[in-house]
Amino acid sequence: MGTMHKILPAAALLAALLLRCGMAEAQPGPQPATVHMSYTGTAYGLSVLAVEAALATDATGYRVDANFRTVGLLSMFLATEIHSTAWGVWRNGRAEPERFWSWGHLRGAPRETLIDYQDGAPILRRMVPANDTERDEVPPAERNNTVDTLSAIAFLLHRVAGTGACDGRARVFDGRRLSEIDAHTVGQVMTTGGTAGTYGGATLLCDFTGRQLAGTGHNPPTLTYPFQEPTDVVSTQLYRPSWPGAESFLSEAHAQIFDQTSSLPGWQTPGDSFKLYEMGYFAGDVILEIGTFGGRSATVELRGALANPARTQRPQFYGIDIMDDSITRTRQILAGEMLGQYCHLFHGVLRDFVQRWSITPTMVFLDGDHSYEGCKADLEILSQYLKVGTPVLVHDFLNTENDTGKIGVKRAAQEWQAAGHGRFMGCHGCCALYVTVTGPA
């Protein structure tokens, strides 16, 4: 086995040496050291992540080793270091894994996953912590004919080497989640070489999309408030719960969320922030936001989702915006708020997003095109995309510019309701909350 060319902490180096001894006994096949890769993740100019990987492949099989760890200031608050390895064989051009092993610590807590494979079925040998402490189990039948995360990467790189393109699809089971990853070729670009031997020249640009297939859940709100416009317009400072169980704020963090995020880019009333946090708390498994602007609402939603101790899966945030600077600003804000790991951003419009991403949102915040035509089009698409019972918060419903015709959010939402697609649940802040009552055919 080749030697990593990056300096690792002593504990990580020892773990790597122990792993090599175990693999020698198991005689796993091809030994790595063919290609070494190193990546550094930064936020606001500071290094926060370090990833080292080694890939070996030949005509018969493959092996991938990867180390991931937080560095710098982030490591003081979010100590994480994960080591992973996978090996297998090629069968009919696809990766057929034999073993996947991942171990280390995540946010300071021990972590380990060991999966063996037999006739295309993953056999879970070891899982720390037990899966029932974090999320619902993926049914055994749905795990069949899946690969681990590293084998999926090996397969896509094998496809590139063989065809010169990165088009491919893989179903991935990592012991806790079942996902599907799609890759497609964007084209050739020219990159400029940097320091420390960074490659410069013709580069194949690939785009990846993914969706989680198992583990999402729905929790529609049940408390309704009749629309009384004079009262609703002046109640933008208030919080009224939409889920039963709490007459007041869910926590002190909920009560302070507007003040705590007031310095982030984005316009909200206190009532907007309170409702977004509550939605994230109760329905924040898969969050879809149309119009991200600057990441403030995303921060509120994710903080609410992460605050719920009963959440059985890691929250996912999907943000859509047509503006380059909005995408960049949102990514930077979420990284600064230590929420970037939950974030997927899409530059474009909702119609293109739903053709590319097959997610199942458990809540939606609609704050995109405010024209009547644009808002109406987005709501019509959502009617064909969302499951029945999905909460949809429509921003600027109470904005007085609806009355002048400058924006058409209120008209579009009320017509959508009248057509039988959504049930009105009340006004909160400057928003109207709906629940979908129709879904895909």
Give a nutshell description of this structure.
This protein has 441 residues and is an alpha+beta fold. It has helices at 10-26, 72-77, 140-143, 149-163, 229-234, 252-255, 257-260, 270-283, 296-307, 324-336, 350-356, 372-383, 401-404, 409-418, and strands at residues 35-43, 46-57, 61-70, 81-91, 94-106, 109-118, 121-128, 168-173, 178-191, 201-212, 286-290, 316-321, 343-347, 363-366, 391-394, 422-428, 431-436. The longest helix has 17 residues, at 10-26.
Note the beta-strand portion.
Answer: 25-35%
How many discrete structural domains? 2
The structural class is alpha+beta
Give the overall shape: elongated
Describe this structure in words.
It is built from 14 helices and 17 strands. It folds into two domains: 10-212, no CATH class; 229-436, Rossmann fold (3-Layer(aba) Sandwich). The strands form three sheets. The protein has a seven-stranded antiparallel sheet with strand order 1-2-3-4-5-6-7. The chain has a seven-stranded mixed sheet with strand order 13-12-11-14-15-17-16, with helices on both faces. With 441 residues, the protein is an alpha+beta fold. Mean pLDDT is 83; it is low at 1-33. The N and C termini lie far apart (54 Å). It has helices at 10-26, 72-77, 140-143, 149-163, 229-234, 252-255, 257-260, 270-283, 296-307, 324-336, 350-356, 372-383, 401-404, 409-418, and strands spanning 35-43, 46-57, 61-70, 81-91, 94-106, 109-118, 121-128, 168-173, 178-191, 201-212, 286-290, 316-321, 343-347, 363-366, 391-394, 422-428, 431-436.
